[in-house]
Automatic annotation (TrEMBL):
NCBIfam families: pro_imino_pep_2 (TIGR01250). Gene3D superfamilies: alpha/beta hydrolase (3.40.50.1820). Belongs to the peptidase S33 family. Residues 73-327 form the AB hydrolase-1 domain. InterPro entries: AB_hydrolase_1 (IPR000073), AB_hydrolase_fold (IPR029058), AB_hydrolase_sf (IPR050266), Peptidase_S33 (IPR002410), Pro_imino_pep (IPR005945). Keywords: Hydrolase, Signal. GO terms for molecular function: hydrolase activity. It comes from Flavobacterium aureirubrum. This is Proline iminopeptidase-family hydrolase. Residues 1-21 form the signal peptide. It comes from the Bacteria. The keyword Hydrolase applies. PANTHER family: HYDROLASE, PUTATIVE (AFU_ORTHOLOGUE AFUA_2G14860)-RELATED, MONOACYLGLYCEROL LIPASE. Transmembrane segments: none annotated.
């Protein structure tokens, strides 16, 4: 075969591959909102999934948006005891990219069963719940991406440490790998940035365990949350965020996290959680997301990306803890690019 014929053959082969890829993309986009061949068509993608636990059987709420056989993102919300409503901004970005995503309220959350049993609120039990949800939704390592934000990031890390063989990709959004490090950052870095009088009042309330005092939450909301949770005045917070906080289950939240986002305090069960020494065992492609004004140290988030075997770091310079709302111009392009790079086999660690 002459050189010219060889070059022509190679060009034709590459052109064919490109056409096949384009055909696949067009097919996914064309069928993205077609629920006609699915058993959840009648409910608009909603499924109540049975969950078996040591304390009995319950059901958790899920809602699928779109169809994409290659990219399916299960969303793990914060809290603990929060809801999928923290993710509703995804509706403005994922459908346009034909990314399938699944909203999911964990057990104890507003749209799922809410048993009153503290034996259920452990990392280990939640990991097994996620695994049962994965199986029910028929997700596997050819398409299954897990995105956890805040407490959901803890759950995502714990899941990956046990079940990474089931994952195609992992996204850790706005969550450090150590609760003690998170507490230290709140106490030594963020707290002193507050007005000294406000900081002193907050510490006094916590010292006296006056967590239910309305003044305590008022101080946090107006001086800490608007700087480090969502960087907008409270009266400008999105309706979905207000709804999510309204639906927060305090029984689960206080038991595991404590009374507020100002560190994990009191007898909260997550107070000593730390997986920093185990992250190096995670080999699945991983995106760690940090934000400049977050309650979580962005340098620690970058460290996570370097500690796992195949990590990439996404920095949100204008964002805080809910950077999916206050820094969307960096958050969503970075997440979407990660999903597409892993899907296309072009992912490179940072």
């Amino acid at each position: 075969m002459t050189t010219s014929r060889l070059l022509l053959a190679c060009f034709s082969f590459l052109l064919l591959l490109g056409c096949q890829s384009k055909t696949t993309e067009d097919s996914v986009r064309l069928n993205y909102l077609d629920y006609s061949k699915s058993d959840d068509q009648a409910t608009g993608g909603i499924r109540m999934i049975p969950i078996s636990t040591p304390a009995g059987n319950f059901k958790v709420w899920t809602k699928r948006v779109g169809n994409n056989p290659k990219i399916k993102v299960l969303l793990l919300h914060g809290g603990p005891g929060g809801t999928h409503e923290f993710f509703e901004s995804f509706d403005g970005y994922f459908p346009n990219e034909s990314i399938e995503y699944i909203y999911y309220d964990q057990l104890g959350s507003y749209y799922s069963d809410q048993p009153n049993d503290n034996r259920l609120w452990t990392n280990e039990r939640f990991v097994e719940e996620v695994e049962q949800v994965r199986k029910a939704l028929k997700l596997d390592n050819s398409n299954f991406y897990l995105l956890g934000q805040s407490w959901g990031g803890i759950l995502a890390m714990e899941y990956a440490l046990k079940y990474q063989k089931n994952l195609k990709g992992l996204i850790i959004s706005n969550m450090m790998a150590s609760a003690p490090a998170y507490n230290k950052y709140a106490e030594e870095v963020l707290g002193p940035k507050l007005d000294p009088t406000v900081f002193a009042q907050i510490k006094a309330f916590e010292k006296n365990k006056e967590y239910t005092n309305p003044k305590y939450m008022e101080l946090l909301m107006n001086h800490y949350y608007t700087e480090h949770i969502l960087r907008k005045p409270v009266n400008q917070w999105p309706e979905s965020i207000n709804r999510a906080f309204k639906h927060l289950n305090p029984a689960v939240y206080v038991y595991m996290q404590g009374p507020s986002e100002f560190g994990i305090t009191g007898d909260a069960t997550l107070k000593n959680w730390d997986v920093t020494q185990r992250l190096k065992t995670i080999s699945v492609p991983t995106l760690a997301i940090g934000a400049q004004h977050d309650t979580m140290d962005p340098k620690h988030m970058e460290w996570i990306a370097n500690e796992v075997q195949n990590g990439r770091y996404l920095h949100c310079p204008d964002g805080s803890h809910l950077s999916q709302y206050d820094d969307q111009k960096h958050y969503f392009p970075g997440v979407i690019q990660f999903l597409k790079d892993v899907d296309n086999g072009t992912f490179k660690k940072s």
